[in-house]
Amino acid sequence: MAGKKRIKVIMAKPGLDGHDRGAKLLARVFAEAGMEVVYTGLRQTPELIVDTALQEDADVVGLSSLSGVHNYFFPRVVELLRGKGLDDVLVVGGGIIPEEDVPGLKDSGVAAIFGPGTRTEDIVKFIEKEVRTQ
Amino acid sequence: MFDKDKLTAIKAEKDQWDCGPVEKACAKFPERKTTFTTISGEEVDRLYTPSNVADFDYQSKLGFPGEYPFTRGVQPTMYRGRYWTMRQYAGFGTARETNERYRYLLEQGQTGLSVAFDLPTQTGYDSDHTFAMGEVGKVGVAIDSIDDMKVLFDQIPLDKVTTSMTINAPATVLLAMYLAVAEEQGVPYSNVGGTVQNDILKEIVCRGLYIYPPKPSMRLTVDLIKFCYEQVPKWNTISISGYHIREAGSTAAQEMAFTIANGITYVQSCMDRGMEVDSFGPRLSFFYNAFTNVLEEVAKFRAGRRYWARIMKERFGAKNPRSMMMRYHVQTGGVTLTAQQPLNNVIRVALQTLATAYGGAQSLHTNSYDEALCLPTEEAVTVALRTQQVVAEESGAADTIDPLAGSYYVEAMTDRIEEEIDNYITKIDAMGGTLKAIEDGYIQKEIQESAYRFQKEIESNDRIYVGINKYTMEEPSPTNLLKVDPKQREIETEKLEQFRARRDHKAWKAALDKLDEVSRTDENVMPTVVEAVKARATVGEICDVWRNIWGEYRPKEFV
């Protein structure tokens, strides 16, 4: 990454879910790994998340859901991003997401889903690798 | 409790033991770690002796169950009279589906109900609102109107069961609906028993399901407390919750400290509205977490009971012992569950249940082993309930009161946690009170710091978590998970349309106008909310009246 700008991540909580321990924790982990992080706070609509990504010129959008709304929200965020021409923005997700939902989410353009118990350094490595190879 | 010479002798012998046999043993086989800590990071010594509780005074520190300072429990006979209430939190999909689950649980020997509402209900949106997209019936039952509430309690006599409702920002509305349904069943308010969470401060601190800014939110909280004191005497008007603080990452001591800090704020707010402390004090209740480190949890519960009793007596001048009792519900720790090897969670929950029983709780929800994966299946819920029944009926933990009292370790830990609570309360007082500490992000940051520390410990293998960083294995993907019908929102939307078409439009409009008017004064809103739900106003419509007056809360984020 020498000479390049820092990776910019939007951490977002789509929907009404208030469980933000994971999102906040990752925001800190990403910042400590040298990334620039914007945490959106709670109750974000897909439109708000995409607006933030656009304004902030984000490389990555991280979506966290523990209330079972991932199948609706995650693909919608990808769709809106692509609609705005943000084809390079990497979308990753995490939270309580049944394994059987993962293939569908990946098909819709979510690059990876990180479930409970994932090591945070694995998430950092994944993001660094994906953004670098773009 | 111990005579001085004896203590000196014990200390001398302990020193000899440390320098002799211990040193020798360690030279041969070093201990597993240089320092041992609880899951909260409390340091744990090799051995506890009377020296650790040298100043221990039985009468002032422990006393007797049912008597000040209530360290040993709030009732004179505790579980020898009656077990804790086994109350499983449940709700998903439609009111009809949830009603079936409730009746199943009651048939299985559950002794109280606990309603989980979906997120639109908890944030004051009807199921057909745009913000309800994807959320209807997901993490709880969707309740829009009095008709839904009627179906939820169909064939469940509201004078025979007590119901706990996890509802905060719109607590007044859901309580009004519950009371209206009771009335239709012919049950007078005076025979209705249960709890509403009604704890907006912890929503702002960590749970996130707020609607209005703190000031009007606190007004609704106190309106409900006052109304119940006057008309629904068996209702627990608030459940001051540490559960979510712990889930968000706090330590055991922080959980207790920040909950008590919130409790102090509610008591002060009620007194500022002219209520006598002993009028509402006996109806305050609490809600805590239970993690797997059994002895630390037991110490936390005992320390909390003792500290709260002192606050109520000394700070607020309570005279009625009932005002000084910290009565509480417990839920086993959601964040302690793993998605990996989910059956291991049965064991975690069993230990947490034991901690709860030794700690002296009034009611308990045990989590299901599959909850790190999805909403619990009926099979998993049954195992969770049976876990409570095994601990109650077979372990012997319920046969004598506060059986761990007098353990050098448990008493020392109880003292230490109490001291930490006191340090936090002193600090928060100095900052200008809880509301100020929340506004400045102090409490939030303390919790996040603990969450971060814990995560680092796991990732560096300093703390072992079975199935996460040790004893891991390849597993097939889990099957047999509970699915909520994705068509839920359409079902509810259609029901709402019909409901709105059927109601008397004039009466509905008049009720909402009156609510608007009353809400702008200092008058208690509760009676008008009851009228509004009877005039068939929905949760979303009532909450919108207040959104128009007070606006919505948007917190500062502290990351």
Report on the structure:
The complex is a heterodimer of chains A (about 130) and B (about 550). With about 130 residues, chain A is α/β, with parallel strands linked by helices. Chain A has one domain (about 10-135): Rossmann fold (3-Layer(aba) Sandwich). Helices cover about 45% and strands about 20% of the residues of chain A. Chain A contains 5 helices and 5 strands. Chain A has a 5-stranded parallel β-sheet with strand order 2-1-3-4-5, with helices on both faces. In chain A, helix 2 (about 45-55) crosses helix 3. The longest helix of chain A is centred in the middle third of the chain and has 14 residues, at about 70-85. Chain A is globular. The model of chain A has no long low-confidence stretch (mean pLDDT about 95). By secondary structure, chain B is an alpha/beta fold. Chain B has 3 domains: about 5-60, no CATH class; about 65-460, Methylmalonyl-CoA mutase (TIM Barrel); about 490-550, no CATH class. Chain B has helices spanning about 5-30, 60, 95-105, 120, 145-150, 170-185, 200-205, 215-230, 245, 250-270, 275-280, 295-315, 320-325, 345-360, 380-395, 410-430, 435-440, 440-460, 490-500, 505-520, 525-535, 540-550, and strands spanning about 35, 45, 85-90, 110-115, 165, 195, 235, 240, 285-290, 330, 365. A 9-stranded parallel β-sheet of chain B has the order 7-6-5-4-3-11-10-9-8. A two-stranded antiparallel sheet of chain B has the order 1-2. In chain B, helix 14 links the parallel strand 10 and strand 11 (about 365). The longest helix of chain B is centred in the first third of the chain and has 25 residues, at about 5-30. The model of chain B has no long low-confidence stretch (mean pLDDT about 95). Chains A and B meet through helix 1 and helix 3 of A and helix 4, helix 7 and helix 18 of B.
